[in-house]
């Protein structure tokens, strides 16, 4: 494969990933959220949470952030399938979707992305466990924010996300989210 073909293949995946900036997280429609966050917005904060959880749990923050950024990239092709729909639909495994997405990338890029998605999907390394916790914790935080904005029917997202958390650090952060105020950061501390 020529260098120009490698570059074109990599750019194709970059363009495809850009769709995630426009693709909504569809499950929130069931809660009455008319304009839910995009998959890219979810993935960004998941990566931020993952980096923090990794530091708290002794995992590799860079690796966790990479797993978090890549964990939903397949949704450009299979969309964000709500949990209720998963009872009736069978999607291709994320590893297979990712392999198709990066097939024309330079081999080093394809190998890196395929390995990261496989690691996340297997859920066996500390980094994968932390990344999965970051995904669930981000959903919980988003539900708390939507509730603060007046969306009443978010408790099922809070409960299922909290129940899925594995690490002590994620559980502590979930408790802090549930007991905190999303806009408290706007009130600066007293300078006295």
Mean pLDDT: 95
What general outline do the C-alpha atoms trace? globular
Radius of gyration: 18 Å
The overall strand count is 0
Run of helices and strands:
HHHHHHHHH
Portion of residues in beta strands equals under 5%
- Spans with pLDDT under 50 lasting ≥5 residues? none
Specify the oligomeric state.
single chain
Count of DSSP H/I helices: 9
Category by helix and strand content: mainly alpha
| Distance linking N and C termini | 64 Å
Largest sheet features? none
- Helix share bin: 55-70%
Question: What order do the helices and strands come in, and which of them pair?
Answer:
Blueprint (H helix, E strand, L loop, with lengths): L2 H16 L20 H19 L3 H10 L4 H4 L15 H8 L5 H16 L3 H23 L6 H10 L3 H12 L13
Task: Write a concise synopsis of the structure shown.
The protein has helices spanning about 5-20, 40-55, 60-70, 75-80, 95-100, 105-120, 125-150, 155-165, 170-180. With about 190 residues, it is mainly alpha-helical. The protein starts with a helix and ends in a 13-residue tail after the last helix.
Which terms summarize this structure?
192 residues, mainly alpha, 61% helix
Your description of this structure?
There is one protein chain. 61% of the residues lie in helices and 0% in strands. It has 192 residues and is mainly α. It has helices at 3-18, 39-57, 61-70, 75-78, 94-101, 107-122, 126-148, 155-164, 168-179.
